[in-house]
Prior knowledge:
The complex is a heterodimer of chains A (318) and B (466). With 318 residues, chain A is an all-alpha fold. Chain A has helices at 19-41, 43-66, 77-87, 95-110, 123-134, 136-139, 158-164, 173-178, 190-202, 209-224, 229-234, 238-245, 256-276, 283-300; strands at 142-143, 154-155. In chain A, strands 1-2 form a two-stranded antiparallel sheet. Chain B is of the alpha/beta class and 466 residues long. Chain B has three domains: 28-284, Rossmann fold, CATH 3.40.50; 290-364, Ubiquitin-like (UB roll), CATH 3.10.20.600; 370-466, no CATH class. In chain B, a hairpin with a 5-residue loop joins strand 7 (81-90) and strand 8. In chain B, helix 11 (388-396) crosses helix 14. At the A-B interface, helix 1 of A face strand 15, strand 16, helix 13 and helix 14 of B.
Amino acid sequence: MKENLLVSSSPHLRGGRKTNMIMLDVIIALMPAVIASCIIFGWRAAIILGITTGVCVVSEWLSRLIMKRDNTIWDLSAVVTGILLAFNLPVSIHPVMAGIGGVVAIVVAKQMFGGLGQNFVNPALTARIVLMVSFPSQMSTWTKPFEYGYDAMTTASPLGILAESGDTPMPSYLDLFLGNHAGSLGETCALAIILGGAYLLVRRVISPIIPGCFLATVVIFSLIFQRDILVDLLSGGVLLGAFFMATDYATSPINWRGKIVFGIGCGIITMLIRIFGAMPEGVSFSIILMNIVTPHIERLTRPRAFGKARKERKNNEA
Amino acid sequence: MEFPSNPFRTFGGVRAPHRKNTAKSPAVMMPPPEQVIIPLCQHIGAPCNPIVKLKDPVFVGQKIADSPAFVSAPIHSSVSGTVTAISEITLVNGQSVKAVTITSDGTMTTDPNIQPPSFESREGFLKAVRESGLVGLGGAGFPTHVKLNIPPGKNVDTLLINAAECEPYITTDHRELLENSEAILDGIFVVLEQLSIARAIIGIESNKPDAIKLLRDMLAKDPRNSDRKVAVLALRARYPQGAEKVLIQAATQRIVPEGKLPLDVGCVVMNVTSVGFLGNFLKTGMPLITKRVTVDGSAVNTPQNVIVPIGTKVCDLISFCGGYKTEPKKMTLGGPMMGSALFSDEHPIIKQNNAVLAFNEKDSRISKPTACIHCGFCLEVCPMHLMPVMLEKYTEVNNVDELKNLSIMTCMECGCCSFNCPATRPLVHSIRLGKAMIRKADAAAKAKAEEEAKKAAEAQAEKSAD
């Protein structure tokens, strides 16, 4: 007779994919852009990447320790946040500032709200915005690509060129696509981001709805306002934001209708800031703003349960 | 008759591993064990009362318990011998029921009163079905005579035969299709005739091509099917195609409304083993006393299909299958997705069981749940379009109204959400707690309303007395 049996609630079988494997997939998808940023901006890019990732992981470990909670660094989400934060910084930023960004991302934006899955705004973007308002000049000084030293020349980013309408020539489409222009670490090389995004789509880590709606909205606005569509798509953080930031699970809606609304919202706000705003770029603000309204979007776009009656439409004709 | 050539689209579902290791194993008849423990409630509905006494001799197929209630099914002895105990036992679902223990005399003497049933009307047919003790053999155990008793005013045009068998490991329905196909067709044609239903669709998952071909060939030759009343539909091999509402959607594109029955969309769904049994019963009159069961899992020596007398203890069945290979850590009655974990291998096999699985330590491990990452994978796979993650959250904060809003009662506990959760959260378990909470709240509300009505009536009486 066997009595020492394990009794648990069904199902007794689980699928293979675990949280840390999903995060590992995201890290793999970020690798092309990591390599591209190190080629374009040199060893300083590698240092910034190392600092933000290290600070994020250590902050995660320390804050969980202080809060007497389980150690969660092995779910790898802090590594993802660290890489994404570095991607949003200019290569010339002071390493201490990058470190402050890491602490803000993990401790303030993530752990204070309960950790992975509980944060209501994207940690890396929150840190970027905090740094932008704290160190505005450092955060908008762009270095010329392929000049690796501390004495590298500064220049304007493509969207800056577009906004200022000065004498600086616009980089060619090919340069924009390959990343041979000024900008944040991870956002310049469109090719690397598209490769990573395709990997995420193939591995079914993200659904194509958010990036699709986001980019489509950008294209539509670009058409309406007769801007250069390719420049709008390839410059700034649109691609990075659409594939890696807007698709963050914790801060985007969970069902497909919500995702459509979210993606379109991101696109609209991005383009409104680009066209009418004081700043040349608006991707991070658009995503953060949509993050904040995500719970409301989710409430309004709940799926209709199987067999649940449609709500009676109010008759307006009376 | 109109038949779909391809299944209609269904929602969600997961690609659960098939692991149909025993698909090629013909069912072996198990010799009667020394002792059987026959619980007196093997169905949804009122438990039966024993009609035998201690030390009574019983025959194979003799009725030993019945109930005057409508939603119930009688229980028969599966061996011949003597009643040695009538006691209370705990079933795997936690229900405490009476059980009759019969010590076998080893002769398997059949009850001389058993004869094929004869009937002339629908009422007579349903009475015979009731006497056979048949319940839904797919797992739910709903008394078949109740299901087939279509209330006047309901228009039923389709009989669906559920042979999807989407649960991993289990192959009993597959073997039933191959070994008992004649009786299955007999059963189907009798039900169609007696209930005057226009067509029958046999839904089989496409991972059983041999069964699909066999049934199609037999139906093509069968003279009773000259007017093409019955057809086989190859379903997608995607869990849970065999769930009642999902099967109805796949075969007819109809959606069963929330809180309604298949009858409300013109369907009656029967498990293939149930109709197979019915076919045999109408010929022989032998009630439901055996069940084909898949014995499998990493801790069993010889995985195989076995025809087991009802009431056989799980440990006796495992011994028949060569015993345990290693120390079992987890055992389930039913498949790994929806089956219940056994607390002891002394538990008897009952009518609606279709598998006994025993897993070693490695296969029983459960990873610790981690934080929900809000990925929405549970929504993607829910065949009922629910939001498991929200149901879990509202259960945690006891929010009955929101749970009802989100149609928690529509959940059939198929387990897709938990299966697909990267944080290994016990979503189905939370939903079960949430459902229990709603039932409790509803009962409390009902009691309160009754009490208030009583008080109001008393006040009224006092008033009129003044």
